[in-house]
Amino acid sequence: MTWLAQCLSSRPAVARRNRTMHSGGSAHPARGRQSRPVGPVVLRAGGELRDMLPDGKDQVAWDPENVLGDGPTDHFARRERERAKANPEGASQAPVAASLEAKPAGRTKFAEVPTLPSASEEVGFGAEVEAAFLDVFGDKAPRVLESFRRLRRGEEFVQMHPGEGVQRAGSFMEGLTAVAFPDMDNGQYEWLKAVEENADVIQREFALAMKDPGSMLVRGNRVWAKAARDEAVAYGPNWRTLVLQDRGIWEQSNIKIFPRTHKLLVDIDAPTLEVFFARQDAKTGISSHTDNSNFIQTTHLGVDVPEGECWIKVGEHTRNWMNGKLIICDTSFMHETSNESENDRYVLIMRHWHPEVTEVEKAANQFLFEALDDGTSGGVSVAKKQAQKRLNALLSVRGKKKKGGKRGGTSGGGFGSKKC
Fold it and tell me: pLDDT (tens digit, 9 = 90+) per residue, 311-338?
């Protein structure tokens, strides 16, 4: 995606448009191995980061840019702070902030409670998006608004989680549980259990389609397409995708090839934003990188996997793919993959909301997705109207639940039970 914030992410694109989350990150290939002493996340002039690890740690997995800073900072790496010293006139050079025409902001500390809402006096497209956000959501989604403000300021969240690994996100919502491989049995992923229970349906349909690859190419859209952006170098030239869903919109040509897979996910009301088959060629791998957003998680279903010869490493932990089995990942942690076998590896990838994101926060993020994706004032206006409709529907559900509670009905669950 090369939209106005010039944020790069690692997701596939469909022909109609290069959609993206409101933040993403370019994937950087590793540049060698080097040992460093233990230390905090640090900041270097120019905003580049380095995660310093104990001697003996594999720096390829932890420091893809091989940059060492000069001094400690808080968890939100302050690119603007150093740029302000070099540029006292105050003109931000951060790609994200500059492209959104945002002015330099003051220091923001980790977990600081934002003062919301506050009307911005800035001008430019970023300020226009924020004003529309406040008109619709007010103080109902403060974590989302603060995440967008950090994006405009060019801030990036980086943290070493002991025992888990390095988390790095250009779009970061505070308060979400950070675990490299979430446990499917923790009560938050019942819909994924249903996917795994029906894995054979997906596998059989995929195997049938693969018997006639020529037909797939004719009937489908961007079948086995390369990574959407040249900048996504970590994925390499041999990583290919077949998209079923992008930004919550089903790709009509491709779901006709996989109708049972589509029906399964629709019937269980899967909270997915993206669904696609991914092929990793034999003897290839993906370099360490981050997907740059902590409120979207990634789940892989082994569809046709050379078991025991291919793996994914997220943070400090490694898992092997298995046919018919799921792996849930928080891909805001640095992660990499390898297929060491002589055969291609095929998985179904589902990118979905972190289970701790509220319904209102989903609607708020959806507004940002749509407004930034269009990139025009007219697009902001359309996205605002759609967001208001979604919010009204959520508030209506909450109102009905409260009213039902007064009559002695059940008031728990759903939107009404969540803090917004």
Answer: 999 999 999 999 999 999 999 999 999 9
